[in-house]
Design brief:
9 helices, 0% strand, mainly alpha, single chain
Length: 192
């Protein structure tokens, strides 16, 4: 009996979603194809019916994860009644929730160090996704991409450090300092 129409796309999407969550949580190199397939509720034998290799999946998982993050941040901004709406995004991005829920968060701070040592194909896709996030942040903050790059770098760097240290007070302070600096960067951009 043949599968219903759209079955292969649904299965592929489940694999990409599983990979995005696994990569966000464990990184690229510590996640195997069988682990990803198990997370999707599938056996690993079916992987190559959907992807040529793990690198192709990494690229698709990055695209999926960034789309997911942008949608989440846009939803938070849309619910904000006051301006600048970017402050809501800053507060969410540098929240203890985002720090502690890496499996659901932005993939950029989770994978940046590993991607820097990955293939050119993976780095190219990741570069495009970083550019997409900078564009989203810049547009939402109504600032040029140079300032948007600085703002996004502040967000990512603060989150990476807050996740890295094992001192909870220092971690919270890093988030707080990052929020303060990011909001100041936006505020001074409006007054210039």
């Amino acid at each position: 009996m043949p599968y219903p129409k759209g079955h292969k796309i649904k299965v592929r999407n489940k694999i990409v979603e599983s990979a995005a969550q696994a990569f966000r949580t464990h990184g690229i190199h510590d996640v195997s194809v069988p682990f990803i397939m198990k997370g999707a509720g599938l056996t690993h034998g079916g992987f190559y019916a959907h992807f040529d290799n793990k690198e192709q999946l990494i690229g698709e998982a990055c695209r999926y994860a960034i789309s997911d993050t942008i949608a989440l941040l846009q939803k938070a901004a849309d619910q904000e009644k006051q301006n600048p709406k970017i402050n809501t995004v800053i507060d969410y991005y540098l929240s203890s929730y985002h720090r502690d829920k890496a499996e659901m968060g932005c993939i950029i701070p989770a994978l940046s160090a590993e991607v820097s040592r990955s293939s050119e194909d993976v780095r190219q896709i990741f570069t495009h996704e970083v550019e997409r996030m900078i564009s989203f942040i810049s547009n939402l903050a109504e600032i040029d991409t140079s300032k948007g790059s600085a703002l996004f770098s502040t967000l990512v760097g603060s989150l990476v450090l807050a996740r890295t240290v094992n001192d909870p007070e220092l971690s919270d302070n890093l988030l707080s300092a990052g929020k303060q600096y990011a909001k100041e960067l936006v505020r001074t951009s409006y007054t210039c």
